[in-house]
Specification:
GO molecular function: hexosyltransferase activity
Structural class: alpha/beta
Largest sheet: 6 strands, parallel
Strand order of the largest sheet: 2-1-3-4-5-6
Helix content: 40-55%
Shape: globular
Pfam families: Glyco_trans_1_4
Keywords: Transferase
Number of helices: 12
Low-confidence stretches: none
Mean pLDDT: 97
Organism: Sulfitobacter brevis
Distance between the termini: 8 Å
Number of strands: 11
Radius of gyration: 22 Å
Order of helices and strands: EHEHEHEHEHEEHEHEHEHEHHH
CATH topology of the largest domain: Rossmann fold
CATH superfamily of the largest domain: Glycogen Phosphorylase B
Protein name: Glycosyltransferase involved in cell wall bisynthesis
Strand content: 5-15%
């Protein structure tokens, strides 16, 4: 059985690594593991990030040309369903609804969001297309409860909503860390929410006992100098590791004592899954999205600020037994909820609900 797969924000074939590309590839692997043949239907990138109405119209015009090609291809390949990953107002699915309708096949979405506030203003054309695409979906797999709130509110009567928790692209857990190396932070260095997390992290580190801690930071980006400035003068050691490939980062996870990352406005954060899989306790704030991928524990609230994060970090640093207990709970949580076999079963059930049996 052949399925069409499309990611309007970033193609899984894109040469530049990113979280979106990794998730798209993981979804393809999960579907292929069920026995499906997956066709990457299109690499059309619909993202328009500046709110340029003229560019949006140009993208819409290009999509119309692509639709004609895809209908012909879909008939030749005998696609059983169309699956779109990450439809939202800056990168709407301009292809799937029309192609699925022409081929009379089910149309499914994964990790879609609704944003009625964008239906007026600079992204109006794109936002309207994203809403129309969500309306057309027979099934939407939602990733977080925060996304589910608006999806439920606006769902057409016959649409099915299925919870698909974020997952790692692996069947088993890696080896557990002995939790003996320095603390670890993993995050891209860019303006906005990432820089806000780094600022909160620096404030947290300033509250730890002087000259008793070392933090390794894996990540790079255009805000590197500002991150370095935030960390300058702290009474501990900060080691900048730069951007690491997945294998090298796995080696770092395999030794670290804990992961610390506040998670300002993270959708959920794959870094939390990766760290917990290696048995790292996580120091993060209790935020929507983030809390859904963390093993249950008393995480500090946003209102607790850096003091709450510092208290949690210091409590784990001071007690090997607490670290071991928290790390074991983290691995068990990932094993139960966030590996590829669990995701594959959820995808299989969602497809079966619209008559596609794998």
């Amino acid at each position: 059985m052949r399925l069409a797969f499309y990611a309007p924000l970033k193609s899984p074939a894109h040469p530049v690594p990113s979280g979106d590309r990794n998730i798209a590839r993981a979804l393809i692997a999960a579907l292929a593991g069920l026995g499906a043949e997956i066709d990457l239907a299109s690499t059309l990138n619909s993202r328009e990030g500046t709110g340029d109405a003229e560019k949006q119209q140009q993208i819409h015009a290009a999509a119309q040309v692509e639709i004609a090609r895809l209908v012909r291809t879909g008939r030749q390949q005998d696609w059983a369903a169309w699956i779109t990953y990450h439809n939202y107002y800056k990168a709407p699915d301009l292809l799937g609804p029309a192609v699925a309708r022409a081929l009379r096949i089910p149309y499914l979405q994964i990790e879609s969001t609704r944003a009625h506030s964008r239906l007026e203003g600079q992204w109006a054309a794109h936002a309207a297309a994203a809403e129309a695409a969500s309306d057309a979906a027979d099934v939407i797999f939602y990733v977080t409860e925060r996304d589910a709130e608006t999806l439920r509110r606006d769902a057409p009567a016959q649409q099915r909503l299925v919870h698909l928790p974020p997952f790692l692209d692996r069947d088993t857990l890696p080896a557990a860390s002995p939790l003996t190396a320095p603390m670890l932070c993993v995050g891209m260095m860019r303006d906005g929410d990432k820089l806000a997390s780094y600022a909160l992290l620096a404030q947290t580190l300033a509250l730890l006992p002087a000259d008793t801690w070392t933090l390794q930071i894996a990540g790079d980006g255009p805000a590197r100098a500002r991150v370095a400035a935030l960390m300058a003068g702290l009474r501990g050691e900060v080691q900048f590791l730069g951007a690491l490939d997945s294998n090298t980062l796995a080696d770092i996870y395999a030794q670290a004592s804990l992961l610390i990352w506040p998670g300002v406005n993270e959708a959920f954060g794959m870094v939390y899954l990766e760290a917990q899989a290696a048995g790292l306790p996580v120091v993060a704030q209790n935020r929507p999205g983030v809390r859904e991928v963390l093993a249950p524990a008393p995480y500090p609230s946003v209102e607790d600020g850096p003091q709450g994060l510092a208290e949690m970090a210091q409590g784990l640093r001071a007690s090997p037994a607490k670290r071991a207990e928290a790390g074991a709970a983290a691995r068990a949580w990932i094993q139960a909820h966030h590996l590829r076999p669990q995701a594959a079963r959820t995808l299989q059930a969602g497809l079966a609900a619209v008559g596609v049996t794998l």
